[in-house]
Amino acid sequence: MSEHINNREYRQKLLKELIMELHDGKDFDEVKAKFEENFKDVSAKEITEMETQLVVDGMPVEEIQRLCDVHASVFKGTIEEIHAIRRDEDTPGHPIHTFREENKLIQKLIDEQIRPHVDAMEENDKVTVDLAADFKDLWEIDKHYGRKENLLFPYMEKYGITAPPQVMWGVDDENRDLIKEVRELLKNYQYARPKEEVVEKANAAINGVEEMIFKEENILFPMVLDTLNDNEWKKILEESDEYGYFFFEPKVEWVPKAVPEESMEPEVQGVEGYVKFDAGFMSQEELNAMLNTLPLDMTFVDKDGRVKYFTQGKERIFARPKTIIGREVSNCHPPASVHIVEEIVEELKSGKKDHEDFWINMGEKFVHIRYFAVRNEQGEFLGVVEVSQDIKPLRDLTGEKRLVE
Question: From what superkingdom does this record's organism come (predicted)?
């Protein structure tokens, strides 16, 4: 055992040295040769585990990212021999089958349209319209990346594989930025943008996309196939439609094998005092505090017309004394307007409407009031939720403020 530990420690030390050599600008091929000599007998999974430990030890993800190209290049052509082939991934409907079909379409778009148009752009600029259409199509890769980042990566992190997701997400964003830059250059091309700049950025974008295809096919997919169980693949499959696909409609033929229930959502199993939702779980304290933090008022009236709950936010719009809890909602409104409230509730309850909206001026506030019918999965009426919000600050917004500028 100590031999394995020492060997592993030595390899990790060597891996760190290679990363620092790349950082110091050493020739890529020299580092690649040294990596191949020392790591040709280890799997991609072991490499990524060591990279993960280096991140835990404090090495920036950006430094690890430098080595990603090296081991991707070394493993090219041999990675399939390292990892056993699982037939599930070849079945239409399996998430990996879908990812791979998308990669084929992305590569086809690059080979048959984008690269010929970029080459033509070097000679003249008569293909700018075609190239703009190409990169509009290529932007659909955002859906492919989104499924990977939001559905695959959380399960990798659950198993302690943290560095590869961080590195890949960073590279995905670089590719997104390059595609957006090309689209912007083409959009404003008539305003004296040099074609050389378009060609340079376009080549950088498609090279980045192709490199990511290689990394997904030869490192990411084998690694997650070795790690995730069928229940987890099933959940990824169920959530995939929300993110969309790269010009691909998956046929759901794959049926996951049954995995014992205890291996599903271990983080939820055995947790007492928590409220479980369709997506997640929270303690009563967390739930109450979260609802009171929302910048709006919510009041719930049950199917029998009795007030059952209202939030206690700091900036209330309408007064709500706790004495109304349990009262019939018709008794909580002035006689002059109670018939309107009853009419709204009846229309929501009968299914004639799913919501009713009002908006009023209240001093400096512009208040948006919405009534929603609350129904269970079977469509049965459970009550009405009233949501009131001062939307004047929202109406005054202009321009954009993004998380990353």
Answer: Bacteria
Q: How far apart are CA 372 and CA 354, in angstroms?
A: 6
Residues 208-221: tens digit of each pLDDT: 999 999 999 988 99
- DSSP state letter for 266: T
For residue 400, which phi and psi values (nearest 5 degrees)? -140, 150
Question: Do residues 94 and 88 touch, judged by C-beta distance below 8 A?
Answer: yes
318: alpha, beta or left, given left = phi > 0 and alpha = psi -120 to 50? beta
Helix (H, G, I), strand (E, B) or coil at 393: helix
Stretch (H or E) spanning 9 = helix 2-23
pLDDT 10s digits, 86-106: 467 888 899 999 999 999 999
Q: Model pTM greater than 0.85?
A: no
Residue type, 378: Q
Give me 328's structure tokens: 């019939």
- What the block records as the tokens of 378 is 């079977």
Task: Find the helix or strand (DSSP H, E) in which 301 lies.
Answer: strand 297-302
Query: In what side-by-side order are the strands of the sheet with 297-302?
Result: 307-310, 297-302, 381-390, 365-375, 355-362
Instruction: Specify the DSSP element, H or E, that contains 360.
Output: strand 355-362
* Burial (Cβ within 10 Å: 0-12, 13-18, ≥19) of residue 359: exposed
Of the candidates 228, 231, 222, the residue with the CA atom closest to the CA atom of residue 255:
231
- Residue 305 and residue 330 in contact, taking contact as beta carbons nearer than 8 Å: yes
Nearest to 332 by CA among 386, 368, 391, 390: 386
Whole-number Å distance between alpha carbons of 45 and 116: 37
